[in-house]
Description:
The protein is α+β, with helices and mostly antiparallel strands.
Amino acid sequence: MKRWWITCSVVFVVGFMIYLYSRYSLCMFSATYNFNDAQHGVVLSIAPGAAISREGITIRYTNNSDRDYDLHPGFTLETKAGNCWVVVPFLPGRGNFFLITYPMPPGSYADIMTLDIQDSFGEIPDGRYRVIRDISHTPENFVPFRHDPPEIFHVAVEFVLDS
């Protein structure tokens, strides 16, 4: 009798969670970032004239602020699933292995990366995607291990892949 009660309770809880997820589009397993690029004057965009395809997308980083910023190595690719953004995993051995932090002085821009989707992620379906990069401002007198680490924030660019 006790075993039956536990089984019924588990089935009820799981069913209720599935109901809530489908009813309210809760993004239980989605990535969440605080995008405040407008506040900092830093923007990621698709480079002008660049084609959006699985073979390559050139992404432009623009610093519209009056501060120096550093673009951190690596990136994240996410896809839109319903109301949620979900991380697209890299193929084995194809992860974020960039070692360079790109300094960006005020008022500058650079076409910083060409993303080869097929090479990094394999065959992915058509849909809405976004690339996310980390950026920080390092104070002029910054000394590692003596000062708090610089504030890191995120910038993103969205695009649509279709056949």
